Amino acid sequence: MVRSFVEVFEEFRKAGVEDPLAETLHLADLVAGGALRRSGLSLLEERGIDTAELVRQRAEGRPLEYILGVAPFLGEVLRCAPGALIPREETELLALTCLEYIASMQNGGRRDLKVIEIGTGSGNIAVLLALRSKDTMIWASDISPEAVEVARENVERFGLGDRVRLSCGDLFEPMRGQGLEGVTDIVVCNPPYIPSSSVDRLDPSIRDHEPRVALDAGAYGIDIFRRLIADAPVFLRPGGVLAFEIGTGQEKFVDRLFSKSGGAWSSVEHFDDGEKIRVFGAVRA
After folding, report:
1. Is the same domain home to 100 and 35?
2. Burial class (CB in 10 A: 0-12, 13-18, 19+), 190
3. What is the pLDDT of residues 221-239, one digit of tens each?
4. Burial category of 229 from C-beta neighbours within 10 Å (exposed 0-12, middle 13-18, buried 19 and up)
5. pLDDT tens track for 81-134
6. 165 close to 139: Cβ distance less than 8 angstroms
7. Which of 27, 124, 120 is nearest to 72 (CA)?
8. 152 lies in the same domain as 17
9. Is 250 found in the same domain as 148?
10. CATH label of the domain that carries residue 239
11. The pTM is what?
């Protein structure tokens, strides 16, 4: 059974359909109740971009999200700009996992939850958690000043300035001295997880346009995992949760890091996208 329109396109192509893209778009329009045929290009007009300019920039490899300045994430449209990683569908699982943890904690009687997000990028996770949960305060940081500014635009756009606090710095450094040590309920992170040697082999639209600092995670792609697992216990309360995304096939490396963490964690969970493990959730002992 196909799970996406990309797979539909591939099936049409393999079957020798004359115009697989047109057929896929037609199917998408039918599934969407005719929404595609009713859509216009007003977004291009708002930004003063004509189709020739769009095609020129895309031909140069610039991602469409950067050209248009927007990217979808769990049904919300967020500001997107160079300097911050483009929000991706696979990261939605991480946000949804955190929402489940938040709901479980609040159903268990905890209120006024404290959440730390490390490496907020465009702020997509922080914004979604604030929008879709109540009684949560979120402290979000990124090592890149440019990314923090994009995140700030999104926080202001959704009117969340009273619940999402932004700062700039390396991992947990901006969180020190803010009264978060030992009382934080959730630490969430979508970290870099691509080995250094693999970054230059990425698609040029990623390699040449998205910030390398948000992609490169050292020789084996696990540098940030190691730091998260070692440092998060300082901030988490007992029973608090560390949740983070991993790359395809990295679960054995991460399991090994947790096994060497000296008893800081009482349990470790895996979450998959239906095919591959993409998210870890660990409970502070």
Report:
1. no
2. buried
3. 999 999 999 999 999 999 9
4. buried
5. 999 999 999 999 999 999 999 999 999 999 999 999 999 999 999 999 999 999
6. yes
7. 124
8. no
9. yes
10. 3.40.50.150
11. 0.90
Q: How many CB atoms lie within 10 A of CB 41?
A: 11
**Radius of gyration for the chain, computed over Cα atoms and rounded to the nearest angstrom:** 20
Q: Are 116 and 98 in contact (CB under 8 A)?
A: no
Residues 121 and 206 in one domain: yes
Residues 6+ apart with CB under 8 A from 20: 9, 12, 13
- Is residue 1 in some structural domain? yes
The two structure tokens encoding residue 71: 């990217």
Domain match, 209 and 147 both: yes
| Cα separation, 123 vs 133, whole angstroms | 16
Hey, what are 59's tokens?
């031909």
Domain that holds residue 12: 1-39
Position 59 in a domain: no
Question: In angstroms, what CA-CA distances link 13 with 3, 25, 28, 32?
Answer: 16, 13, 16, 22
Residue 237 lies in a domain: yes
Q: Which amino acid is at 41?
A: L
How many domains are contained in the chain? 2
Give the single-character DSSP code of 59: H
Q: The dihedral of CA 260, 265, 266, 268: what is its sign?
A: negative
* Average pLDDT over the chain, rounded to an integer: 93
Q: How far is it, in rounded angstroms, from Cα 167 to Cα 212? A: 20
Residue 100 shares a structural domain with residue 192: yes
Residue 226 lies in a domain: yes
Q: Verify that 163 and 270 share a domain, yes or no.
A: yes
Q: Do 120 and 15 fall within a single domain?
A: no
The first and second tokens of residue 23, run together, are: 């057929």
The angle, 0 to 180 degrees and rounded to 10, between the axes of the packed helices 124-131 and 92-107 is 40
Contact 152, 165 (CB under 8 A): no
Contact 66, 211 (CB under 8 A): no
